[in-house]
Amino acid sequence: MKDKMKVLYFMNVDWSWIRQRPHILAQELDEIYDVTVLFPQYITRPWRKQYKTKKTRKCKPIFQIPFEQKNSVLTKIQERMICSKIGNIYEYDILWFSSPVYAKYIPNDYTGMVIYDDMDDNVALQTDTVIAERVRSGQDILFQKADVVFVTSNNLLNRLPEWVKEKAHLIRNGSCVELLEKIQKPNKKNVFHIGYLGTISEWFDFGLIKKCAECYPNIRFDLFGPDLVPIPQNEAIVSHGIIEHNTIANALAEMDCLIMPFVLNDIVLAVDPVKLYEYIGLGKCIITIKYPEVERFEEFVYFYEDEDSFLGLIKELVEKGFPPKYNEEKQKCFLADNSWEQRIKEINNIITSHRRNN
Q: Does domain 177-336 have CATH number 3.30.1330.10?
């Protein structure tokens, strides 16, 4: 039996961070290839970790030295640690990058396949100027050396230089069939709970939900995910912290609606949000800010464009008991057509085609 191709998979997040695209693709690819995952491991608060996310068979942490970018000696130590974890890079058939910061470790004489999974506006995500420059530099290297570039949104695809678009493929995020729940029926009651699942950062529109809480005292907001910014002290806003992925359905069972209340910026405009796939799987009423990348979810979500349209939508949905916009048939068809298994089939076909033609 032919040996599986060996893949060195550079992740952009700690394996203990909330489960998202890099984790899922690593796990799915590990079913087809011999995958070694390298992931950054940070010193962080324990309540910002998930402990039950299944790892791939070969998963190696790279301890991140705090503030190493501020000191040249620490930077060199960090680089040696990374090289030690990589080992003999030439033994791998494929180098997969979900982070541009590791691109400089590609040898000039490497002859295997290089893949860049471009899933976010990676430069805009950085708050440290030194790291932002590293990301920008690494991305330039990957654009040059990658044989295949995957992007998750049309926004990211359109930003690529024309010569990079020739080797780019749109591979959106996917749905987890294990999250399939029955469609929730409208339920008129005294207090309604609106849930949010995901990272809580500067793009979260707290001003909007505080205004909603002022106008509608019977609305409560429940937030599930790591907080990278302070949560306002407000009786109507409750932060539950990180929950394990296998508990999502139970944790959100009592929610009447699920929301994506984002401030539109370059980071958000580039995103194909995994949470909308998850929300549809949970069978809830869904509300989101409208922008081009999510317009294709129109059959499933209620859109708003500004504060007035949001408050008007909330008024309408409260009166109706927050009915989902979709039915069970649409839900199941969407999840089947947009499963991670389907995404991996697309990816594998592209890899196979490239290797056959080169």
A: no
